[in-house]
Amino acid sequence: MFADRARIIIRSGKGGDGHVSFRRELYVPDGGPDGGDGGKGGDVIFEVDEGLNTLIDFRHRRKFAAQDGQEGGKRRCHGSNGADIVLKVPEGTVIKEAKSGQVIADMSGENRRQVILKGGRGGNGNMHYATSTMQAPKYAQPGQEAKELEVLLELKVIADVGLVGYPNVGKSTFLSRVTNATPKIANYHFTTLSPNLGVVDIEGGGFVIADIPGLIEGASEGVGLGHEFLRHIERTRVMIHIVDAASVEGRDPVDDILKINGELAAYNEDLAKRPQVIAANKIDAIYAEDEDPIARLKEVFEPQGIPVYAISAVTGQGVKELLYHVQEMLRELPQEKIVFEQEYDPELHLAGSNLPFTVEKSTEEENTYIVEGPRIEKMLGYTNLESEKGFQFFQNFLKDNGILDQLEDLGIQDGDTVKMYGFQFDYYK
């Protein structure tokens, strides 16, 4: 099965906690602190793999996590860093934040490898907190929490030219003809319902062409497989719009073009503005003498700047002229590939979410606020609140993680009580 979409959860590694320990040697009864630092958590990295052309590897596994950093040890031993996780994807994969649909990264062009989630920083051991007045600190810094994010992976085929049109107008026949012209041509088939890529090699320079099958009326609203196919032509610079000029199935070719262009505009207005050329196919099957469908197509669309070429994908008539015209169109257009810009930065959006906690006003006690969260509980276990240095360290922890801001948003006043896991403090700004 051709897989061009996947929804997965990625998690960076948690930073290792700093260690609390003291030097213990013979004849050194009161050694100083020697707790080592925790290791850094592993990163989540996406990397382009030229050998892949689907996202099938992400269909059967949903969660991917980097390794946590190791806790620091005695004798100033630094905890080992967690291993990164590298996720291989095909070129053209766009990584989006799942809820908003905003682009995090586009694995195209020069972007072959990108860190999407950074691992948590390792915590400092207690050896960092010794001062002239506090020579035996009994606290260390916890490692930074892991970051977790649900992302949507979308494979958008990278091709210079996209073939659009109704089913059965001859797109597949056209593609097989133009991409089997010489032995140099490579043709990549996935399934009958998926995009087919081929390389057109003609004198003066070739180009990559993609057949995007299945476009029908209502595609922009997701009818049939509309969205799945429309996303593949977002990168194309030129579109060849193939129509059945002979009306073999009884449809009006002018009406077909107007409807398909309407679907393109409804999905993405920029798509409808891309340069187009109309390939009026099946001229070998035109038998009507009373009306010339090619002349009618030219009359309607050439005043709009859309050239019309009469071709037969079966016999090859007119195909070479069409390809040379497309080559010239590409030559005149900007050469840079279409790359989607970043809209969502996990480092900014997740900065405040890596320390889960709750801050609530007590419903049972007046002027009392309750703060809870697993990291806060762990910090209280590490920190010596009896010492001035330790208490200041804990206050900075509350401030850096936005807990004091939340208390103030709830209306806390000087002298009010804050409770945390058996500890209570009077609040003073």
State the order of secondary-structure elements, H for helix, E for strand.
EEEEEEEEEHEEEHEHHEHEHHEEHHHEE
Can you count the beta strands? 19
- Morphology call: elongated
Sheet of most strands:
7 strands, mixed
How far apart the termini lie comes to 61 Å
The assigned structural class equals: alpha/beta
Mean pLDDT: 79
Subunit organisation of the chains? single chain
Strand order of the largest sheet: 10-11-12-9-13-14-15
Q: What proportion strand?
A: 15-25%
Low-confidence stretches: 181-192, 222-226
Helix content: 10-25%
Radius of gyration: 32 Å
Count helical runs. Answer: 10
Set down the secondary structure blueprint.
Elements: E1 5-11, E2 44-48, E3 63-65, E4 85-89, E5 93-97, E6 103-107, E7 113-117, E8 148-155, E9 161-164, H1 171-178, E10 187-188, E11 196-200, E12 207-211, H2 226-230, E13 238-244, H3 253-267, H4 269-273, E14 276-281, H5 293-301, E15 308-310, H6 319-332, H7 346-349, E16 358-361, E17 368-372, H8 374-382, H9 388-400, H10 403-409, E18 417-420, E19 423-426
